[in-house]
Amino acid sequence: MKIEKLVPPLKLTTSGDLSLFFIGTGSAFSKKYFQNNVIFIKGDNHVLVDCGTLCPLALHSYQSGISSIRNIFISHSHADHIGGLEEAALLGKYATKVKPNMVITDEYKKILWEQSLKGGCAYGEKEDGQYLGFDDYFVQIKPEELKGMPRPTYHAKIGSIDLKMFRTMHIPGNASSWKDAFYSLGLIVDDRIFFSADSKFDRELIDWVDSSFNIEYFFHDCQFYTGGVHAGYDELKTLPAEIKKRMYLCHYGDNANIKKPTDDGFAGFAKCGYFYNFDK
After folding, report:
1. What is the mean pLDDT of the chain?
2. Is residue 226 classed as helix, strand or coil in its secondary structure?
3. How far apart are the first and last CA of the chain?
4. What would the pLDDT profile of 14-55 be if each residue is shown by its tens digit?
5. What is the C-alpha separation between 38 and 34, in angstroms, rounded?
6. Are strands 139-141 and 101-103 parallel, antiparallel or unpaired?
7. Over the stretch 207-265, which tens digit does the pLDDT of each residue have?
8. How is the chain split among helix, strand and coil, in percent rounded to 5?
9. DSSP symbols for 64-123
10. Catalytic (active-site) positions
11. For residues 218 and 249, what is the distance between their CA atoms, to the nearest angstrom?
12. CA 256: distance to chain centroid?
């Protein structure tokens, strides 16, 4: 893997290798690192993973824009993951006249629209006497559910980018399993890169993924205390050394300077505004 700092403008193509660009690496309340939204890019294909409140601003700072995004995957409905979606939807409908594609199950499509997007997007106008709906703004790419998995896992492809999406244990704080947690998903990309999105410490998940796929690198969210709705730094420290050396931490607070993850066996902190390039 080669890590490179972006020299703007941000381009959504590669020579064919897989690349991960961190639009932001910060927690929901970060003022220094934007929010933990990323873009996977491979050849002429790309997918934006989460579109938080600061995502359009961050893309603008990289001399790009939310209107350049053609494919979106949303992990769950917190504002640092969906707060910029209304802007993407409205610009697509009224400015560019191009609907972004969204990789989304029928179950989460209903949740996302009814509980989050509908209030700002449905009532601006009527078409054929009906209020607008999800399909007026986005083109659904419906993943297939994979059989025989230990938890709900889905599969879809964006061109040459292979996505496997698995249920995570994020909220509420007292959730003890993905089964009693709100709908949230993490990602495996091309069977080689793990991206947790948001998850509490879930050793069962990490062990399953590491034993079932050829994971080269883990990118895991973290917080600097134990308890709550993200994996605690001290909890992640308990992972085997062989996993930690392949794990970059992200979704961290503005006080990240209190930790030096390489001293604790991790690969390090993921960096805002950097590419992580993976050879074929």
Report:
1. 97
2. coil
3. 10
4. 999 999 999 999 999 999 999 999 999 999 999 999 999 999
5. 11
6. parallel
7. 999 999 999 999 999 999 999 999 999 999 999 999 999 999 999 999 999 999 999 99
8. 25, 25, 45
9. --GGG--EEE----SHHHHTTHHHHHHHIIIII--PPEEE--HHHHHHHIIIIIHHHHTS
10. 86, 123
11. 8
12. 20
What contacts 45, CB < 8 A, 6 or more positions away? Answer: 71, 158, 159, 160, 161
Query: Of 111, 95, 108, 103, nearest to 40 (Cα)?
Result: 103
Strands 153-158 and 161-167: antiparallel
Find, among 144, 89, 96, the residue nearest to 112 by Cα: 89
Q: What is the pLDDT of residues 138-167, one digit of tens each?
A: 999 999 999 999 999 999 999 999 999 999
**Taking a C-beta distance cutoff of 8 angstroms, is the pair 259, 278 a contact?**
no
- The pLDDT-based confidence of 195 (bands split at 50, 70, 90) is very high
